[in-house]
Structures are given as structure tokens and as C-alpha cells.
Amino acid sequence: MATEPRNGKVRSPPASNKSLLRTLRDLHVLVAHPEDHDGEELVRQLRRIGCHTQIEWPLPVHHAIAADMVFCVTERRTFAQLAAHEGPRPYGLIAIVDYEDPAILDHMIDANVQGVVTKPIRPFGILSTLVTARATYRAEQRLQQKIVKLEDALRGRREIERSVRILMESLDLTEKEAYQTLQRRAMEQRQPLVAVANAMVQAHSLLTEIGITARRPSDK
Amino acid sequence: MAEPWIVGVLFSQTGITGFVEQTQLQATLLAIEEINAAGGILDRPIQPIIYDPGSEPEGYRRFATQLLADDGVSVIFGCCTSRCRKPVVPLVERRNALLFYSAIYEGFEYSPNVIYTGAAPNQSSVQLARYLINHHGKRFCFIGSDYVFSRESNRVMRELVEDMGGSVLSEAYLEIHSSRAAFDPVAHKIAALRPDVIFSTVVGINTGYLYEACRAAGLDSRTVPIASLTTSEAEVALMSREAAVGHITGAPYFHTVETPANRRFVAAYRRRFGPDAVTNMSAEAAYFQVHIFAGALGMTGRADPDSLVPAMLGLQVDAPQGRIMIDPDNNHTFLWPRIGRINDHGLFDILEESPSAVRPDPYLVSYRYAAA
Questions:
Q1: What is the CATH number of the domain that holds A177?
Q2: Is pTM beyond 0.95 here?
């Protein structure tokens, strides 16, 4: 998992689920809830658990949130805003539910919450929800990063295949020979294979556009 | 006669922890009698309704329901093991009543409807681990009764031991109702591993079985002490003197604590229950928690938690172990960790005492914070 910058500092997250428990006291939690009885009850229990806890309402704008976990009351407009946010969210989200009507449930699904606590808030169960939501959030993050990596690799693979085909056609090489040519070139230039392949595909399409095509040695 | 304050008392006189809960019951009654002899609270005496739940969760569930629903009490003093506290907590929560719980336990609980007067792990395990590593060595064997207290206490102790450079050679659990014979193979296995310390979380009458089995297996308390958080004077009374002497317990209170308040407590306890009667950590907590209740009730004149709890939080009491206070953040108690070793009289020689009361931290997950 990548590091998360906070207030200029880079914190490396714990590696295992065991350390997930051990780092509860380093966890920053934002309670997005009015400062009423439920809000205060939740803050007190989170502080008992030992998390660095702040309460704020309404939910701050996205980039102003510097917490690992956010407990947010399922107020319609706030959740619509959370659901509309695109791209990765740098914190886990737990919904504080007081109504279970279908519109709110829809919003919760769209906002991809990792956990739910119900009103009235009672201390028992908060720790379980916090820990499982944190684990779910981190598992999702790891999967997301894996997907990005795999997509990159797949894109690279396609470039390499295209450049191999260009070499095969232009220089009348076998697939193996074409691949070795590409590899040699990458080594000489100390560049990743993908970068060389990419440059070759681009150069080829440029030359083709202006009408220059490589001649096969056999056409001589 | 003024109308009494009715309170519920749920300490078992039978079953696997009956022998220690009996002392909690006596200490509770002693405190109530002291308060009544001094004129009661706001000129009304305290009157207990007492049931024997038989040391089993089902008994606690049944009698707690009876106290709350039929007898109409809003305050219960009681419970010893975690397996018996767990069913009572939701019942007092549902009826907004108050439970006073006077036993050491594994932490990770907070209910606005419970006052915890026994030690949390940061007030017991941390001090014990440090003492054992410093004085006896780094190679541990763990043995426990198979339930939440033992599993969690062993998790904490393992972390402490490993952080201090020690190792755990074995970890074994026996069913909570085990027979004396079941302990022999376990004791022999431990003896073969030649550890420096045996850490026991065996509870109830099984405690005596473990100590006897270890002695029978040739384990000598001078070279391989059994260390415990729950073996009090009450458990020592279950064993032969030879099996008990030299073993070590970490607790906030022993019968032998030298404070003026404890001299008064022991003298009163013996006047009431016989010249040879011996107190212990659970009895002491059961005793001072009634005085905390009385202090708060005297201030508010109302026996419901919404009135009592705010009055109790921050209230200081001169308990036999030292001056204690309820922590307003978590309803647990500031306590005085001590280390004791069983002597020839079946009492504890106190080897170490905390210089001040330690703040309770029931949700401490990682003990690298506590060691600091």
C-alpha cells in the first residue's frame, strides 16, 4: 500500500492485520456529526479506544479531510456529495444511520461505505465496526492498486506485441528474432522494454502517415 | 423505620467460583452493615436482596432479570468471571440499571451502566511481566482455563514477554470444569520444557488442581514459580501449603497490605466472619465499591444511574489498597498494582508496590504503549 501524506509528513501504513489492531492508537478519526448526545457519545467511545478523534459538522470539503477513518451521519446532501466524488478516497467511511429508508440506503451504496453504526449510539460495537471497516478499506485499496498495476502491465504488453509485429513485417523476422531485437535495443538504451516498444510504435505510425514504409530486405 | 434503599447482590455461594464469591458477598455485607450502623444514607438503611447464581452464566441471567424486573432494584453488586458478567451487562443496559463489578478482568469493555472496580490489564499484567522477566527469566509456559479472560490475558502477556525479549514455550487451555487428573499431563509437559516461569490464567477451584499437579510433577516454586493474576488468598486456601508457597501473584490488593484503612478493614472483617478469616483482592473491591455507591447516593439521594454515575465519577475513597478514584472517562478505577509471593502462612509477602495509583486503560490494544 502506498504512503499517505498528512500535514507534510509521510506515514507508512501497517503491514498486517495484527498491526492494524496495534496501530489503533495512531488512528485519526473524524466524526462528521452535530455535537449532540449521539455525537459526543461516539467521540467519547473512540477516545476511550484511544484514537485521535475530532468532531466536525458539516463534513469538511474533500481535500480538507485529514483522517484515516470518517464516521459520517447519513444526511442526504452530504451523502449525495460523497457518492458523487470520483477517484480514490484517502480515508475509510463509516455511515451513522438513523433512518433506513431506500434513498439513504442507495446513497450509502453509492458512497461505498465500509461500515455502519446505528443511532442511538451505544459504546458496544463501535470497536468492531471500526476495525472491520478499516480492514475492508485497506483491502479495497490494495486491490485498487493491484488493478492499476495490472492495467499498466496489460497496456505495456499490447505495445510490445504491436512493435514485435512491426519488426516482423518490416525486417522479415520471426517473432522470436523481433522480440530479441527489441530487447537488445532496450538494453543498449537502458530503457524499459515498454518504453522502447512505445517509441517504435509511435515512430512507425508517424512514418506510415507521411508515406514512408520500411522496405523488406527481400524487396531489394 | 425509614424506607430502605433496596439493592441486588449477585455473588455465588456454590459452583466453581463460589469460594471466592462468598468472600465478595461477605465484604459487601460488611460494608452495608457499616453504612447502616452509621445511620444509613440520608437516614435510610441499605437493604440487600441476595441470590446465589451458582457460578454459571444462566444463573446470573435468571437472577439479574429477577432483581431488575420483579424486585425492582436499580443497582446490583455482583459477578466474578467474565463469562458471568457478559449476560448481565445487556440486562442492566436495557433497564438503565447499574452493575458494580469487583473482579480483575481482561478489559475491552465499557458500559455506561457498569462501574468496574477490579484491575484492567494495564494495572496488572504489565507490572507482573516486568517483575517476572527481571527476577525469574525469559522462558514462559502459559496455562489457562478455556474462556475469554485467559485467552485475552495470554495475548497481552505474550506481547509483553516478547517485547521484553522473552519467549513463550507453550500455551495450553483446559476446559473450565476440568478434573484434578486433567492437570497431570499438562504439568508433566511443562516440566519437560524446563521454563523459567509458568503463567497461569486457570480460575476457580481448578486453580488448586494446577498448583497441586505442578508440585506432583516435581516443579519447585523456587526455580519455576507459577505466576497469576487471579490466585488470591481465597485460591491459596484451596491448596496444600506445600503446593502454594513461593508462587507469585500480581494484584492491587493483598490481605497483608499495610495501610491504616486495611488494618481497619481486616479487623472489621475478622470481627464479623471469624478470627481466621482472610480477605483478598475481589473482596476488597467488593467492599470499597459499596462505599463509593454510598458516597454518591448521599450526594444525589437517587439510586438511578443517571444520577449516581455523574456523582461517582472522580469521587475518591480511602480503600484498603490506598486512595482510589473512578475514572470519569471509562468507569474503571485508579488502582495500586502490587506483586506478592505466597508465604508459609498462606498469605502474600508483598515484593513490589506501585508508588502511585495507576490510571485504568481498558482499551489498550498494544502494550508497547504501556511499557513506556
A1: 1.10.10.10
A2: no
